[in-house]
Amino acid sequence: MTYTIGLIGGIGSGKTTVSDHFESLGITVADADAASRTVVKPGTPALIEIADHFGQEILRADGSLDRAKLRSVVFQDQTERRWLEQLTVPLILQECRRILDAAKSPYAILVLSTGTGQSPLIQRLLVVDAPADVQIARTMARDNNSRALVESIIAAQVDRETRNSYADDIILNDGAVADLLAKVEQLHETYLQLTHEAKV
Ligand code: ADP
After folding, report:
1. What is the mean pLDDT of residues 14-23?
2. Given a cut of 70, is residue 200 above it in pLDDT?
3. Which residues are bridge partners to 111 per DSSP?
4. Nearest atom of ligand 1 to the alpha carbon of 174
5. In 3D, which of 149, 144, 141, 145 has the Cα closest to residue 177?
6. Residue 193 CB burial class (10 angstroms; 0-12, 13-18, ≥19)
């Protein structure tokens, strides 16, 4: 399997900017969030099972999954959440593995969103880190959200110290975009070296 680096960071930390830049350097990027949507697209066996289990009202008029409704159903019900996870987690893993296996680049990046980055698919973990006030300002500007909403999202996510404690590499994104991109390019060199050494 392709040597894979997991990528995590809180909302507005700069994950997308970082993963886009790795991609522009020719590195294959898989995204667990995108995979979680792919496996429940209309016509998939998983979506048929979900509609059988929760009822057709879990679907929107166009036949796609109403993710907000599903989230609210499983939010307070551990049994239903477990049922959903036993169905979707293996499929998400399989979908990410498919993309990573097909990678032609010397290493690959797997974007794991805002958790702690525990995944059997990765060999190393990169955290994009930013102070909360910077996360808040960037997310408010990007999504046109209120400060209170962004603060509540950050409060619900893994805290900064815990997230950073899992990291093999940390990119501190508290400066200009150009500095961020330069840090990505530096890490790219490190990763090329690492994967080269792993092969010899
Ligand atoms: P995430 O994917 O972690 O939520 P993004 O990469 O979308 O974060 O970054 C959040 C917002 O901040 C985006 O609009 C992005 O263009 C912007 N941004 C990212 N890094 C910087 C930076 N160093 N300086 C200014 N704006 C930035």
Report:
1. 98
2. no
3. 7, 31
4. 23
5. 141
6. exposed
d(CA 20, CA 31): 11
Percent with pLDDT over 70 in the chain: 98
Model pLDDT, residue 76: 85
Q: By C-alpha distance, which of 99, 109, 115, 100 is closest to 38?
A: 99
Among 4, 2, 16, residue whose Cα is nearest residue 113: 16
- Is the minimum distance from the CB of 163 to ligand 1 under 6 angstroms? no
Q: How far is CA 42 from the centre of its chain?
A: 22
Tell me the pLDDT band of 40, cut-offs 50, 70 and 90: very high
Establish whether residue 88 lines the binding site of ligand 1, counting it when its CB lies within 6 angstroms of any ligand atom. Answer: no
Protein residue whose Cα sits closest to atom 20 of ligand 1: 14
